[in-house]
Amino acid sequence: MSHERQEVRHLLVLEDSEGRRPILLEAATYSIGRDPTNSIVLHSKMVSRQHGILLRVTSPETNSHLFRLIDGDLQGKRSTNGILVNGQRIVAHDLRSGDMIVFGGDVRARYLTLTNMTDSEFENFCRSTDVLGFLSKSTNPFATLVPLGDGNIENFSEAALVRLASYPELTPNPILEVDLEGRVTYLNPAAVMQFRDLQQQKLTHPLLLGLPELARYMKQTQEKVHVREVEYQGRIYEQSIHYIYESELIRSYVMDVTDRKRAEEQLRNQARREAIINRIIQAMRTTMVAAEVLQITADLLLEALGSTLCLITQTAAPDTLTYATRPQVLHLPGSLISLNQRAIAFFEPALSNGEQVVLATSCSDLPEPLQTDLRILDVHALVITPLIYLGQLLGHISLLDCEWEPTEATSISTNHSQLLQQTLPKSWTAEDLSLVKTIADQCALAIHQAQLYQQVQELNADLERQVRARTAELEQKMQELERLNAIKDDFLSTVSHELRTPMANMKMAIYMLKQFATDDRQKRYLDILAHECNRETELINDLLDLQRLEAGRSQIQQEVIDLDSWLPSALEPFHNRMQQRQQSLEIVRPPTLPPLLSNRHALARILAELLNNACKYSPAGAQIVVRFEPIGGDRLQIQVSNPSEIPSEELPRIFEKFYRIPNADPWQQGGTGLGLALTQKLVEQLQGEISADSEAGMTTFTLSLPTASGDPAA
Predict the structure, then answer these.
(1) Are residue 485 and residue 368 in the same domain, yes or no?
(2) Could you list the residue range(s) of the whole structural domain that residue 576 is in?
(3) Residue 400: pLDDT above 70?
């Protein structure tokens, strides 16, 4: 075994599911993968069968050789899960001593160049379970370890050297340590690669800023872990800070959370967008007043986008202005309103086409008047979004961001100092402008709905005015008709009363004349006079009775009527009359009829009117049928049918006063048109119902009256 020291040895310290092992790189080419035929076999299912290639190449700078790591094979086929070197995905990479390599995501390796080691030392090194514990001080090649003393590389401790192949050295996440004095005691390779200026900036670096003060605070409060976020060169890092009490060191684990933060921000923006739109839609559902919806919209936009002022104008009502301002703005500046109006007028063609106008002081192509106004009024940005619905411009939403608005500030307090971080109002992003356009569409819809609602309200108000006017006119006419009807009733009542006295005298005179012997001619004339006198008396009585019933001055007293004993005598006169007219009367009834709760005189008059009409309007030889049928246990139905037909268009009017069916009296028997009207009123007084039906040459009047069954008086 040689005791001569070799200048350079290339070593790959590999760690997979089979454990950790060192591989001395002496050949010119190595294939790396899961397949057993590879030069270097990686034991992991996440590794491709042919995952990578190691090629030995000569460095033109030092005239010494190094190894180049290539992802995939030499034919250009890449591995499935890729290769990371120092946290960065590579296709080809020239390895340097200390490079950390990750194959497939779970196999880690460290590339080392070892100098001035004898064969014996190297053999003991490779056999050692501690792997790196036998490295001599003079052969330590690692620039990632920070010396504890005055910078002399020989002052590394043996424990520090062991870190080389440990987890902190292989992890792709930066790890760093500082002491309470702020001196950096350890940086892992990932920290060195990602933060190359960390040792130059020292405590002014964002990752180290305030760490000693924070550590003393943690020591006093016994806080074990403190997590904070640090922004550095456009990336966001989550720094987990641990205070190690035994060694009084501050260890930080750093993780790049930029992508996660951006995704979270996108989710927050999406949630914010949906929440704002939902609140506006909810406002539209609960009110049809455009001013209320627009005020809610202005407040929400001001809150969501952090602008200074939000103005919403309506084309149909230019003097109506909806706005929301920051609490610092006590009064709405008229100069900003004027600026907004001038900008809307200048860009009216673009706004009418639905374009969103964005103005900023940094824009060099703005018209000079507007650019001057923006600068004088300290307006940092102005965004005007048109409110368009169905191609109609209904208004505008304007957002103004003014530089004179106070900035917000957040601070972290410690025992010895205060770390201040100012947060300026953020610039509006494309997503913000898209949100404004989406909200503008909802506002345009709200204004359109409010306009339609206002039109409907105006139409309803006009219709109500017309209805009230028409109702008042009808009420006036009804009052006039009622007055005329009252005059008519008074006239009929007066005339009827006045006519009864002379008619009674005429009947008495006719009776006295009949007591003396007269010839046949005189007797015939006296009979005619007596008949006509009776007709006039009946007419007058009908008028008086109907007038009393309509006025409610006549109340019929009800009584229990035994139809079985009363009915034959009530119908007897009609048998004789119909025989004289060569007609027949048929009575259809059950053997026993229930007693009626009615009035004898009124019931007799009703039957007389119905039978007289049937007899009057039926031809000779006709049969008239009267049916009695109990229904429902407490009602009696009476039907009077005769062979004649009433036109269907005349049926609704047959119960009107003085109404007579045209051309329905071929025998010219005359009539007043009061009989059926009086009959209907009498039926109503008896708590009954009457109706008429006429078809197929037959007319039937149906009468329904209450029976006395169940009545205590019965």
Answers:
(1) yes
(2) 555-706
(3) yes
Answer yes or no: do 544 and 624 share one domain: no
Average pLDDT over residues 402-419: 41
The domain that contains 24 carries what CATH number? 2.60.200.20
Give the relative orientation of helices 290-305 and 258-286 as an angle to the nearest 10 degrees: 170
**Amino acid occupying residue 597:** L
Name 255's Cβ contacts closer than 8 Å, sequence gap at least 6: 173, 237, 238, 240
pLDDT surpasses 80 at 155: no
Per the CB < 8 A criterion, the answer to whether 398 and 310 are in contact is: yes
The kind and range of the H/E element at 309 are strand 309-314
Res 440 pLDDT > 50: yes
Domain end (from 553, 572, 587): 553
Please indicate, yes or no, if residue 250 is contained in any of the structural domains.
no
Residue 625 is predicted with a pLDDT of: 92
Give the Cα-Cα-Cα angle 388, 393, 394 (nearest 5 degrees): 85
User: Maximum distance among all alpha carbons in the chain?
Assistant: 187
Most confident of 194-208, 467-481, 518-532, 567-581: 467-481
- Categorize the per-residue pLDDT at 411 as very low, low, confident or very high, splitting at 50, 70 and 90: very low
**Nearest CA among 287, 272, 273 for reference residue 446:** 287
Classified as helix, coil or strand, 43 is: coil
Query: For 632, which DSSP code?
Result: T
502's tokens: 């002379």
- CATH code at position 343: 3.30.450.40
Q: Which of 553, 571, 597 is the last residue of a domain?
A: 553
Phi, psi of 579 (to 5 degrees): -65, -40
* 316, 448 contact by CB (below 8 A): no
CB atoms within 10 A of CB 420: 10
- pLDDT on residue 666: 54
Sign of CA dihedral 597, 601, 605, 611: positive
Sorting pLDDT into bands at 50, 70 and 90, what band is 662? low
Residue 455 lies in a domain: yes
Do the domain assignments include residue 219?
no
Q: Do both 494 and 616 map to the same domain?
A: no
Contacts of 687 (CB under 8 A, 6+ apart): 705, 706
Tell me, yes or no, whether 431 lies in a domain. Answer: yes
Regarding whether 412 and 342 lie in a shared domain, the answer is yes
Gap between the terminal Cα atoms of the chain: 143
Q: Provide the CATH number for the domain around residue 592.
A: 3.30.565.10
Q: How many domains does the chain have?
A: 3
Residues ≥6 apart with Cβ < 8 Å to 563: 593, 594, 595, 596, 628, 636
Does one domain contain both 455 and 573? no
Residue 702 CA to residue 663 CA, distance in Å, equals: 24
If you average pLDDT over every residue of the chain, what do you get? Answer: 78
- 581 and 521, same domain (yes or no): no
Residue 632 Ramachandran class (φ > 0 left, ψ -120 to 50 alpha, else beta)? left
C-beta of residue 596 within 8 angstroms of C-beta of residue 705: yes
The three-state DSSP-derived secondary structure of 638-696 is EEEEECCCCCCCCHHHCCCCCCCCCCCCCCCCCCCCCHHHHHHHHHHHCCCEEEEEEEC
Letter for the amino acid at 184? V
DSSP 373-430: HHHHTTEEEEEEEEEEETTEEEEEEEEEEETTSPPEEEEEE-SS-EEEEEEPPPPPPH
Among 146-155, 176-185, 289-298, 619-628, name the most confident range: 619-628
Note the residue count of the chain: 714
Concatenating the DSSP letter of every residue in 118-149 gives: -HHHHHHHHH-TTSSTT--GGG---TTSPPSS
Of residues 607 and 130, the one with the higher pLDDT is 607
Same domain? 436 vs 515: yes
**Residues 298, 315 within the same domain:** yes
Are 645 and 698 in contact, with CB atoms under 8 Å apart? yes
